[in-house]
Specification:
Layout lengths: L7 E3 L9 H6 L2 E4 L1 H9 L10 E4 L2 H12 L5 E2 L8 E2 L1 H29 L10
Parallel strand pairs: 1-2, 2-3
Antiparallel strand pairs: 4-5
């Protein structure tokens, strides 16, 4: 697991996706007893709640996570493809770092990746 991931707040999910592995690896909070009971009945996640705790509301769960992790940098995964939802503090960090990352990708990583695959950069107009 990536050590940058400090906690998972599990607000809502369909059952049937095997994800107990994540709860075993990082502190996990499930929002509401109803969601916890879904996991207790999910044959792919029978042990999920052995590694998670239940907190009544999303607001209380997030406040707990902020205190326990010492950060307000949050990725909000809602299953939407092609986008990322983040908290304002994380958005500010990513915005500050984006120019340097883009520069490295354009001038170092992408050319290296293309060379490894035998792609001639000149055909790309570079």
């Amino acid at each position: 697991m990536n050590p940058a991931i400090k906690m998972c707040v599990h607000n809502y999910a369909w059952t049937g996706y095997p994800s107990a592995f994540f709860a075993e690896q990082i502190p996990t909070v499930v929002v509401g007893q109803e969601q916890a009971e879904l996991f207790n009945r999910d044959p792919l996640n029978l042990n999920y709640m052995d590694y998670a705790t239940v907190i009544k509301s999303t607001e209380a769960a997030m406040n707990f996570a902020y205190r326990a992790t010492g950060t307000r940098k949050v990725i909000i995964f809602d299953g939407a493809m092609g986008g990322i939802n983040v908290s304002e503090p994380l958005a500010e960090l990513l915005t500050r770092k984006a120019p340097a990352v883009s520069e490295r990708v354009d001038n170092e990583l992408l050319p290296k990746w293309l060379r490894q695959r035998g792609v001639d950069m000149s055909v790309l107009g570079k």
